[in-house]
């Protein structure tokens, strides 16, 4: 049979079908390209944000564990008594890169400070020590040396009712007054060794010795910043 219609013209059904298929393919291609461009734009925007967020998170973590930070006893050792007083306003003042961002600071399972809703962004974690110091006082005879049972960074001495002119800590003179020491004095000692105190020849009376032994525990400090 002939492929022509009764009027002698070629059939157009196949051509129309091809045109429809081509149009559909173009629509699909346009949609795919649009989605790809949107994903690419989103990835570029995320790439622009992530370094800034990470820098801010790193800066916050480093500032919080610095030796001169208001919440540390020394570098990388947080003071349990003061770190709990940290809040978002105080932290933002300490770390200018946090200005205008949402952030969260956690120590272990506890949230120390939070501003906004940092659901994404960058998180930086670091292992720290958390220090707790307790106060202990013992009365010791001034005419004999004494070794403290626990290491401490400072010692408070009460000389009420004593006759003491010199105090040595591990052989080093830390206090001296020819006319006699009076009242209470606080001296720094090395926390890396046991403190051995000697009150000098001829010392009499009972000295009140207060020291502050430290206990530390490990914890994870996590800072999240979402710009």
UniProtKB/TrEMBL annotation:
The chain crosses the membrane at residues 20-45. The keyword Membrane applies. It comes from the Archaea. It holds the Pfam family DUF7263. Keywords: Membrane, Transmembrane, Transmembrane helix. This is Uncharacterized protein.
């Amino acid at each position: 049979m002939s492929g022509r219609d009764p009027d002698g013209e070629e059939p157009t059904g196949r051509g129309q079908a091809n045109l429809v298929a081509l149009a559909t393919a173009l629509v699909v291609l346009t949609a795919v390209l649009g989605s790809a461009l949107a994903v690419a734009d989103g990835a570029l925007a995320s790439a622009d944000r992530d370094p800034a967020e990470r820098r801010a998170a790193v800066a916050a973590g480093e500032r919080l564990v610095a030796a001169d930070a208001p919440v540390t006893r020394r570098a990388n050792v947080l003071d349990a008594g003061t770190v709990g007083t940290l809040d978002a306003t105080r932290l933002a003042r300490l770390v200018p890169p946090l200005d205008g961002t949402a952030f969260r600071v956690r120590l272990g399972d506890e949230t120390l400070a939070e501003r906004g809703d940092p659901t994404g962004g960058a998180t930086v974690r670091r292992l720290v020590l958390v220090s707790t110091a307790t106060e202990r006082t013992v009365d010791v005879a001034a005419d004999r040396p004494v070794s403290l049972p626990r290491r401490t960074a400072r010692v408070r001495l009460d000389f009420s009712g004593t006759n003491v002119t010199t105090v040595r800590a591990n052989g080093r003179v830390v206090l001296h007054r020819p006319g006699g020491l009076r009242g209470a004095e606080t001296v720094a000692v090395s926390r890396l060794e046991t403190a051995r105190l000697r009150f000098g020849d001829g010392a009499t009376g009972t000295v009140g010795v207060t020291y502050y032994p430290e206990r530390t525990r490990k914890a994870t400090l996590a800072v999240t910043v979402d710009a």
